[in-house]
Design goal:
The complex is a heterodimer. Chain A is built from 8 helices and 19 strands. The two termini of chain A are 39 Å apart. The longest helix of chain A has 19 residues. Chain A has one domain. By secondary structure, chain A is α/β, with parallel strands linked by helices. By secondary structure, chain B is of the alpha/beta class. Helices cover 39% and strands 28% of the residues of chain B. Chain B has a 6-stranded mixed sheet with strand order 6-9-10-3-11-12, sandwiched between helices. In chain B, strands 2-1-4-5 form a 4-stranded antiparallel sheet. The mean pLDDT of chain B is 92. The chains are: A alpha/beta, B alpha/beta. At the A-B interface, helix 6 and helix 7 of A face helix 2, strand 7, helix 3 and strand 8 of B. The complex binds adenosine-5'-triphosphate and magnesium ion. The site of adenosine-5'-triphosphate has 12 residues of chain B, from helix 1.
Chain lengths: 434, 250
Amino acid sequence: MSTTHNYIQESIELSEALENNSPTAWLSDFRKMQRIKLEGATVPTRTTEHFKYNNLTALNQGGLAKFPESPAVSAELPSLVSSLEGDTIVLIDGRFDSSSSKISGSHLVAFHEANEDQQKTIKDALSRQNFAKNIFNRVNAGLTHSGWLVEFNKSVDYRPLHIVHITTQAAVDSVINEQLIVKLNSMAEATVIEHFVSDNNIKSGKTISHQSAHFDIGDAANLQHYRLHLEHSAHIHFGQCTFWLNRDSQLNSFHLATGGIIKRIDLDVIHQSNGSHAEINGVYLAADKQQVDYHTNVEHRTPHCTTQEVFRGLIGGEAKAVFNGRIHIYPDAQKTLAELSNKNLLLSNKAEIDTKPELEIYADDVRCAHGATISQMDSTAMFYLTSRGIPKEKAKLMLSFGFVNELINNINNDAIVDYLQPLLTQFFKQTVTE
Amino acid sequence: MLNIKNLHAAVEDKTILKGLNLEIKPGEVHAIMGPNGAGKSTLGNVLAGREGYERTNGEVLFNEKDIFEMDPEERAAEGMFLAFQYPVEIPGVSNLEFLKASLDAIRKYNNQPELDAVSFMKMARETCKAVNLDQSFLKRGVNEGFSGGEKKRNEIMQMMLLQPKLCILDETDSGLDIDALQVVAKGVNDLRDSNRSFVVVTHYQRLLDYIVPDYVHVLADGKIVKSGGKELAHELEDKGYGWLDNNEVA
Ligand SMILES: Nc1ncnc2c1ncn2[C@@H]1O[C@H](COP(=O)(O)OP(=O)(O)OP(=O)(O)O)[C@@H](O)[C@H]1O
Ligand SMILES: [Mg+2]
């Protein structure tokens, strides 16, 4: 390739520069190792496994591999912050904003304040990621300079933890790197909301953000998790969520993403001890020329675990969505029950979806189902609604909502449902009206 | 109310209606009977404006207006209502939301103020009760998982709520038990007045004991081949359509 820019190599240089005055010097060996592993690497292309359907050319145009220079002047908090009764960590362009954050308790620790034990926990979690599948996990690891470690214990009634990531004008043409490590000790219960937005005052320009989240869910622990990606359409994001499920633990994870220049989110759910249960639901919405991509990978390594995964996509305009749903059942994972459904609604003729199921089953006594569908607006349903006087646009809106309502209504947090409803309305209005 | 002249219509290039004439005056109830595949549902679909059902010749005036100049939603707002032979299931859209959207749209079109939420709920609950459906049906997805009879009652509920001027009931009696049949008939009879007309498509004379028609027509091979009073329905039930084949159908 004759491009002068290589985002991966530029990020190595940026990582090196970090070592000059890093508040997390104890991570420098870790970062150095990533730099070595990234030596000579380039941005994935269409021939790279796991990136076949992504158009990553925006990364070769240069100018992104630098940290935001000056702190943001101000940023508007999403309304969910006030409607949700919880602890709030506000990260503006990746920087912790203490004035708008609201945290209580000692279970939240910033990386630069971590004690020796905590540093060990952090390093351990960071190095367990799936680097082979997604090179951007390594890019983000190499650029780790801050992050949060959260630890939940049993018998404590925690408030929901709301982590708000806001991108502002000050981060245009820059990169944001974030890490989150969440540990639920045995029998702990917690709710964590990861929430990504762009400040309403961004006028133009793109920002790239990387965020990796690591969840260790201890024996009989219960995590309720949400990850909402609502950044503006000129945003680029590479995200990773890894869930390690231990004995009899429970995970309920809800995802929602609107499209961006590139928005690629990888979910890895690893059942590593008997009796764990994971419920994963997701909605992706893409319009105009946006891209959105969920790569989910569920690994059943042990017997008697269950997974229910449902993703729905609405794609309009000339947008492109990718859904890759992998379920891997190891030879020892007898009595596994795993179901994955992915349904897509194309709202225009030029919209595109690539949905790919990947089932790898190496145990014989398992129940596993996988279904993917792609459809267009149902003309019979349209006729039914319009024959009752409902104008076409409103009818399309109702059918679009109907397509995702099941998932939205299953969210058992009213504040989140109330927050999402109008955003969905706005999205459908824009996409459906053509 | 409705004036159909020499209507020809095709579905997927296949001509189904072949010169159909029918005039319906305000307050009248017309029953249409006829063999399977004759074009009864096609007539309903053409009148309601379903995509793919193409008028190839003839005209239809609804309250003096050319229906082919109007989209389905305009025809509905002008007062046309088709109770579907096979009501459509729409998961994810609640019955209540559907009824509200439909009532709001029709009121808006007719320059009536939007009904407030409380009055609407009251009305919806009452109508639901009138067709003997449990209130939980209001919350469920439109026709989602409803039994055949429940779907038909849901159609009647919509009709009662929207109070259309012309109601076309396409085999609303099929698959109903005797109680449900009476519910449907009562729904229709309560709405009967000098300004409202009905077209009742049915295969069974039984329904016409409850909804007594002014006229009975036989639709065969895309045309009305015989018209008469309510006694025609009895005759058809006794003798079948074969009797017509030999006598009236050329
Ligand atoms: N969407 C369609 N595509 C193809 N053919 C159709 C379509 N709709 C109707 N037809 C055909 O048109 C003819 C008339 O059908 P229609 O449903 O109007 O009959 P009907 O009189 O209502 O019959 P039934 O008593 O069985 O309900 C049939 O031959 C049918 O197969
Ligand atoms: Mg029919």
